[in-house]
Design goal:
The chain is mainly beta and about 300 residues long. Helices cover about 0% and strands about 40% of the residues. Strands 9, 10, 11, 12 and 13 form a five-stranded antiparallel β-sheet that branches.
Length: about 300
């Protein structure tokens, strides 16, 4: 029968071409900002000099219309919103509309940055905090063994940041454009590598694991999506969220990216897209053509 509007995908179309890519350092996070424009993060594709080249789309945060054109107010009249990035992995906006981004460092410092239009975030000249003129340093930094950040979300006045190599969830309390206290880590080593974080309410987070990305041996039931809130920890069980005792985990196949849309959450996996709505998963046949999508 005919599929209702809002329950099917249209034909994919390319918005932007010419983004450098490689085996590593590809960024890849996309989100609509509170201004209604689409933001996309790119890595420098293992070519560090691209991050400082404002003509290149590599090593940047891009801001565009839904037609893939430079958004009004972009600092250079191009798609580029900020530059000097190595590999931005997560972006989120606070209640005041400020854009925050998590970024992979090289060997010494991973970063949480407050993004401002036209600013240079230093790579490859700097990594971590710096006093060099013309370069904006991070608000918070960590060593890769305890972090290697991926997705971030903002809820309850804090940045919540997933850590891959660090295998934990970080909470960074905010006071405007600064931190309000020392970062705290949770679930250290309990669920393995954490990839994406999505706020679906003022005090509720969706978090995905990333234990089938080839960096370690997956455990039974990997990969997983779990929900953290003031009421405790819940995970998927047969397509529904159920509250569970911390330490248990229930399966979801290779969830990588999360995107909220009104009352729905789209989940990007190695197998394609699935949809979470009204507390359960929907995998209609219309999603099947996306089965080869690589997130």
């Amino acid at each position: 029968g005919r599929v209702a509007a809002g329950q099917q995908l249209g034909t994919p179309r390319v918005l932007v071409t010419g983004i450098p890519h490689n085996v590593h350092h590809n960024g890849g996070r996309i989100a609509f900002g509170p201004d209604g424009y689409l933001y996309a993060t790119t890595g420098e594709a293992q070519q560090p000099a691209l991050a400082q080249d404002k003509r290149s789309l590599g090593g940047k945060i891009l801001r565009m219309t839904t037609a893939g054109r430079p958004a009004p107010g972009n600092p250079f009249g191009t798609l580029v919103w900020s530059y000097g990035h190595r590999n931005v992995q997560g972006i989120a906006w606070d209640a005041a509309g400020r854009l925050w981004a998590s970024e992979f460092g090289n060997h010494s410092e991973d970063e949480l940055n407050l993004i401002q239009p036209g600013h240079n975030y230093g790579w490859p000249q700097t990594e971590g905090r710096t006093t060099l003129p013309g370069i904006t340093g991070p608000v918070v930094q960590w060593g890769p063994p305890e972090d290697s950040p991926s997705g971030i979300a903002i809820a309850s006045g804090s940045v919540w940041m997933a850590a891959l190599r660090g295998q934990r969830l970080w909470r960074i309390p905010l006071d405007g454009s600064k931190t309000a206290g020392s970062p705290q880590d949770f679930f250290v080593g309990r669920y393995g590598r954490l990839r994406s974080v999505l706020a679906i309410g003022p005090d509720t987070l969706l978090v995905t694991t990333s234990n089938r990305d080839g960096r370690q041996s997956p455990g039974p039931g990997d990969d997983r999506i779990w929900v953290g809130s003031n009421d405790g920890l819940s995970l998927f069980d047969n397509g529904h969220f159920k509250r569970v005792v911390p330490g248990r985990a229930l399966p979801h196949p290779q969830a990588y990216n999360l995107l909220a849309e009104r009352d729905r959450v789209w989940i990007g996996t190695r197998r394609g897209l699935v949809l979470w709505r009204n507390g359960h998963l929907e995998t209609p046949a219309e999603l099947a053509p996306m089965a080869s999508a690589q997130i």
